[in-house]
Design a protein that fits this description.
By secondary structure, the chain is mainly alpha-helical. It has 20 helices and no strands. It has a single domain, classed as ADP-ribosylglycohydrolase fold (Orthogonal Bundle). Bound molecules: ADP-ribosyl-L-arginine and magnesium ion (2 copies).
């Protein structure tokens, strides 16, 4: 029987896992890995760390916007005793962007970050609402930074959902943008509270699917207006239209999770995973891949020669190609919350810029959460 890591170790693993995923994945966001499943290229890159860390003038792997924004979320939660304060978070995002604009931010979110810095702004959610002609962004920027919110969820799933949504809405008002953050936060939260000897990857995925179906994507625009009979009739019509492919389903994360559950049984090649679950900059085409990377890598992957499930998760996520830093960062946060800090090689931590800050922030959040629990 394997001993589960302590909760403190899981907090640390989560935030540091997100940083190493971002830093190791970032060089490939620009160059690509040469197509999904190019395990050798990613493995060769990591194998060079041995030489680089001891060599003269070894340079750190730099973090990008994923880590810059996640640090703001953690700082804000620490300053507000574990509570999510949207105004405070908005100011931190704006200040961070103004201080270090060259961290590879999404092309459109920059407009929002500049407006969040306006001292006269009365509604901090307004700039995000006007993005894309009022449609809002569905980029994965809300999801990539949400892990600290999940750490502060304690055992309240509703709180995780609400806070993940609020934190994302500051920049991403499209339902696929903020619901991606909700799914990522739920995955981190569930990983954090699953003991290693009770892990069952299929059940883990089914549980996420049920929560998204019952508490998140069930909320349609006419929510609360129709009575139960009318709702049921509408659902039956909708389902028959979906079967006839007359309308697109708007529960895109449930669709991704259904495919993910199927993949856990069928174990398709990386090309198929990337094509169905996605590997792009949009949240609905990347969060599912991060969750799958974690679950799939609990077991060995043919062609990926690494023993540790944590390391395997990061390498596999990057090997999906596309938005490599973000998919690896999200997968790293989930895997780290499950496997704990001991699973992340010290050498990786030393090489990745920002690991030390993530470690300190994890400890502060852990102290806040455990203190508030004992006081109740
Ligand atoms: N920006 C990048 N990568 C590009 C390369 C950067 C390069 N290395 C550099 O140095 O500059 N990566 C980062 O961006 C992603 C997170 O983006 P976020 O925060 O969601 O930003 P944004 O701008 O809101 O959305 C990203 C793009 O998605 C498309 N998009 C979103 N909503 C849309 C909509 N409603 N309609 C049409 N398109 C929409 C747009 O192309 C946005 O620019 C992470 O990968 C992070 O690493
Ligand atoms: Mg990035
Ligand atoms: Mg990215």
């Amino acid at each position: 029987m394997t001993l589960s890591p302590t909760l403190r170790s899981r907090f640390r693993g989560c935030l540091v896992g997100a940083v190493v995923g971002d830093c190791i994945g970032a060089p490939f966001e620009v160059t690509g890995v040469g197509g999904p499943g190019s395990y050798d290229i990613v493995q060769d890159f990591v194998n060079k760390f041995d030489v680089e860390i001891d060599g003269p003038g070894s340079e750190k792997l730099e973090y990008t916007d994923d880590t810059a924004m996640a640090r703001c979320v953690a700082e804000s939660l620490i300053a507000n005793n574990g509570q999510l304060e949207a105004k405070d978070l908005a100011k931190r995002f704006a200040d961070e962007y103004m201080a270090h604009p060259r961290r590879g931010y999404g092309y459109n979110v920059i407009t929002v970050l500049k407006r969040l810095g306006d001292r006269d702004l009365s509604d901090v959610f307004a700039p995000a609402r006007s993005q894309f002609d009022g449609g809002g962004s569905y980029g994965n920027g809300g999801a990539m930074r949400v892990a600290p919110v999940a750490l502060c969820g304690e055992d309240e799933v509703e709180r995780v959902i609400q806070n993940a949504k609020s934190s994302a809405l500051l920049t991403h008002s499209n339902r696929n943008g903020y619901n991606g953050a909700v799914l990522q936060a739920l995955a981190v939260h569930q990983a954090l509270h699953t003991s290693t000897d009770k892990m069952n990857s299929e059940k883990f995925a089914e549980n996420l699917l049920n929560t998204m179906r019952e508490k998140v994507e069930c909320q349609t625009s006419d929510e609360g207006t129709a009575n139960d009979n009318k709702k049921e009739a509408k659902l039956t019509t909708l389902m028959s239209q979906v079967k006839k492919r007359k309308v697109e389903r708007d529960d895109v994360y449930c669709q991704r999770l259904e495919s993910l559950c199927h993949f856990l049984k069928s174990d398709p090649p990386a090309e198929e995973v990337a094509s169905v679950l996605g590997n792009s900059i949009s949240a609905h085409n990347s969060v599912g891949s991060a969750v799958y990377s974690f679950l799939r890598c609990l077991n060995p992957v043919e062609g990926l020669h690494v023993q540790s499930p944590m390391e395997r998760t990061i390498l596999y996520a990057i090997s999906l190609d596309g938005d490599t830093d973000t998919i690896a960062s999200m997968a790293g946060a989930i895997a780290g919350a499950f496997h704990g800090i001991e699973s992340i090689p010290e050498q990786w931590q030393k090489l990745c810029e920002g690991s030390d800050t993530a470690l300190k922030q994890a400890d502060r959040l852990y102290e806040i959460i455990t203190k508030s629990k004992t006081e109740r």
